[in-house]
Write a structure and sequence with these properties.
The chain has 768 residues and is of the alpha+beta class. It is 44% helix and 15% strand. Among the domains are: 370 residues, Kinesin motor domain (Kinesin), CATH 3.40.850.10; 127 residues. Belongs to the TRAFAC class myosin-kinesin ATPase superfamily. Kinesin family.
């Protein structure tokens, strides 16, 4: 069946479900200048160490934080292109010839040597020309004629017979295209040194009973658009057309391919590299601050090998499309990851750098999700469709094939941070596993058909050639043209020549019969020898059958044991699933209880805060109420004291007043005048006045008055103070104490006899 980069998913427990990790290698390029500071050191053939350059920030302990990273193999600064190819790319080409797929990336920052590793330089061919050289060294003599295999637009191959292929070759040769590669053209001296590989390399165990065809294509992914670098666009000087981007399609086997991509059939290393070089000139490069010729796109060079078995006679290609095997090797030169502040990019360069970094970030994300799914058994969706780069190669990671990654690093100190990110990506990629490719199915025809046909004299075409040689050995025929009716020599000469030819032919027939008898005898001997060998082989085969039957019984026993173990494993898996489900339920219940406790705790805190606020508010309220009541009580007491003071003043005034007559109750008008006059300028109070909390005033008496009284000689009492004599010689009026006291006590508040009574006329404040 047709072999493509992706296979249908296999069932669990199948032998084809074996997986291998992605092979990640590291190559350290030499420094451009010897005096440059180095931040990467090769510790061993599998480990490198990164240490921050001088002036870089320190870690918490104050020491430099050095990190080590391990790879499948590390290539130092003195590694040659041949050593790198033998370890990394040689197995991929060998798998390609045996019908298996491969993918090779070069990854690193700008200026780390990715393009040099992939393409090479004059005198030092890179991985790409070496892969082509090994491929054509292995299948050179087994290639099919041009146009026997023909690509279509459905990511598959059609097969033509020799006659149709010959007609198409003649048609193409009649209308030559100067840009079509040809093995007869001289090699371009611009890249002649790159493909001049001195070391001969060839794959082992090539299927000699098949014919091969090699097709190459070259695309670039620029700003997340796919462009065909081999597409020939007619040049229009008036209105040139920009290149059209291509779309990704999915074929019937769910494999991704670039629709409408040009595939060129090549027959030699020179032709293939000429096609590559033609596309390389169209690739987008630009001058940045970090690299004079910085790749601004990801390039993908695909080598597609088509195999088809020979028929039972070993003469022609088997005309069955189902027997075609297609394998593919993709060589990817990724654009360098870079920080825009270092590249000093602006405008288009800035947009290019953003798209490059975005596609590389998507590649990292896909690797991380794949690792997580394979490590923890999750089933997260891998975001292949976020970038054309990852979408194109998702078949390798979801299907089967061998994937290799070469991490190129520049040890200079300025690239320390970028190199650190590259190392972390490589560390993640090493943990991703891809399905191991399977061997192709055998077509069922007898092996050795090609050389067995050559041994018996070649195909029918060679027999015809031998017949032509035999005919040329006959004597030439004389001229048969008769110009004269009396010509009697032409016919006799012709008859004589024909008789000689007939005699020679008869002799050859006799010789042929003799040789056929001899050959039959030899063939009989050969048959006897074959029969003896068959008997011997039959005996050996019976012995082997016994061994095989014993091994089959052992295999059956092991299969039964395996089934028992698988059943136990399935039970354990189900038990584990139940336990995990219980664990998840308990965890969810625990989380729910924790959430409830947190909710209750938060409610309690809110309630405490609310109660604290209510207590504080109530406390402040009662403090104010107490202050108000105390102030009111103080005011009440002050009022009482003041009333008493006024009474005492009235009493004093009664005692010291010299009038003898009983005072008459004054009228309200006179009391009002006196009250008004006393309120305007009251008599000084012998005491201190203080403000109270309620807003009133309190009086504290500071003097003490003493009232003296003498016993009267008569019935009437006299005051201790004798009133002075009046000018008219009469004694001052006096009144007894009882009368005056009774008058003072019986006066009601508001009688306006003095300033104090006016104050007590105000209504008292009610108690709260």
């Amino acid at each position: 069946r047709t072999k493509t980069p992706r296979k249908p998913p296999v069932k669990k427990g199948s032998q084809t479900s074996l997986k291998d990790p992605v092979g990640v290698y590291c190559r350290v390029r030499p420094l451009s200048l010897p005096e440059q500071e180095c931040c990467i050191e090769v510790i061993s053939n599998t480990t490198v160490q990164l240490h921050p350059p001088e002036g870089y920030r320190l870690n918490r302990n104050g020491d430099y934080k050095e990190t080590q990273y391990s790879f499948k193999q590390v290539f130092g600064t003195h590694t040659t292109q041949k050593e790198l190819f033998d370890v990394v790319a040689n197995p991929l080409v060998d798998d390609l010839i045996h019908g298996k797929n491969g993918l090779l990336f070069t990854y690193g920052v700008t200026g780390s040597g990715k393009t040099h590793t992939m393409t090479g330089s004059p005198g030092e061919g890179g991985l790409l020309p070496r892969c082509l050289d090994m491929l054509f060294n292995s299948i050179g003599s087994f290639q099919a004629k041009r146009y026997v295999f023909k690509s279509n637009d459905r990511n598959s191959m059609d097969i033509q017979c020799e006659v149709d292929a010959l007609l198409e070759r003649q048609k193409r040769e009649a209308t030559p295209n100067p840009k079509t590669p040809s093995s007869k053209r001289q090699v371009d001296p611009e890249f002649a040194d790159m493909i001049n590989v001195q070391e001969f390399c060839k794959a082992e165990e090539v299927d000699e009973d098949s014919v091969y065809g090699v097709f190459v294509s070259y695309i670039e992914i620029y700003n997340n658009y796919i462009y065909d670098l081999l597409e020939e666009v007619p040049f229009d000087p008036i209105k040139p057309k920009p290149p059209q981007s291509k779309l990704l399609r999915e074929d019937k086997n769910h494999n991704m391919y670039v629709a409408g991509c040009t595939e060129v059939e090549v027959k030699s290393t020179e032709e293939a590299f000429e096609v590559f070089w033609r596309g390389q000139k169209k690739r987008r490069i630009a001058n940045t601050h970090l690299n004079r010729e910085s790749s601004r796109s990801h390039s993908v060079f695909n080598i597609k090998l088509v195999q088809a078995p020979l028929d039972a006679d070993g003469d022609n290609v088997l005309q069955e499309k189902e027997q075609i095997t297609i394998s593919q090797l993709s060589l990817v030169d990724l654009a360098g990851s870079e920080r825009t502040n270092r590249t000093k990019a602006e405008g288009n360069r800035l947009r290019e750098a953003g798209n490059i970094n975005q596609s590389l970030m998507t590649l990292r994300t896909c690797m991380e999700v794949l690792r997580e799914n394979q490590t923890y058994g999750t089933n997260k969706m891998v975001p292949y469709r976020d970038s054309k780069l990852t979408h194109l190669f998702k078949n390798y990671f979801d299907g089967e094939g061998k994937v290799r990654l070469i991490v190129c690093v520049n040890p200079k100190a300025e690239d320390y941070e970028e190199s650190l990110q590259v190392m972390r990506f490589a560390e993640v990629t090493q943990e991703v596993e891809v399905a191991r490719p399977t061997d192709k199915a055998i077509c069922g025809l007898t092996p050795g058909r090609r050389y067995r046909n050559q041994a018996r004299g070649g195909p029918v075409g060679d027999e015809l050639l031998v017949s032509e040689v035999v005919l040329q050995s006959f004597p030439p025929l004389p001229s048969c043209e008769i110009l004269d009716i009396n010509d009697e020599q032409t016919l006799p000469r012709l008859i004589e020549a024909l008789e000689k030819r007939h005699h020679l032919r008869q002799m050859m027939i006799d010789e042929f019969h003799k040789q056929s008898i001899t050959f039959k005898a030899l063939l009989q001997e050969f048959d006897n020898a074959v029969l003896n060998k068959e008997n011997y082989i039959q005996g050996k085969l019976s012995e082997k059958q016994k061994v095989i039957s014993g091994q089959k019984s052992e295999i059956e026993r092991l299969e039964k044991k395996n089934k028992t173990l698988e059943y136990k494993v399935e039970i354990l898996e189900k038990t584990t699933t139940i336990y995990e489900e219980d664990k998840r339920n308990l965890q969810q219940e625990l989380e729910t209880q924790n959430q409830k406790l947190q909710q209750q705790f938060s409610d309690k805190r809110r309630l405490e805060a609310r109660l604290q606020g209510m207590v504080t508010e109530t406390t402040m309220k009662w403090e104010k109420e107490c202050e108000r009541r105390v102030a009111a009580k103080q005011l009440e007491m002050q009022n009482k004291l003041w009333v008493k003071d006024e009474k005492l003043k009235q009493l004093k005034a009664i005692v010291i007043e010299p009038k003898t007559e009983r005072p008459e109750r004054p009228s309200r008008e006179r009391d009002r005048e006196k009250a008004t006059q006393r309120s305007v300028s009251p008599s000084p109070v012998p005491g201190d006045v203080y403000k109270t909390r309620g807003g009133g005033q309190s009086v504290q008496f500071t003097e003490i008055e003493t009232l003296k009284q003498e016993s009267p000689t008569g019935r009437k009492r006299r005051s201790s103070t004798i009133a002075p004599a009046q000018p008219d010689g009469t004694e001052s009026e006096w009144t007894d104490v009882e009368t005056r006291c009774s008058v003072a006590v019986e006066m009601r508040a508001g009688s306006q006899l003095g300033p104090g009574y006016q104050h007590h006329a105000q209504p008292k404040r009610k108690k709260p």
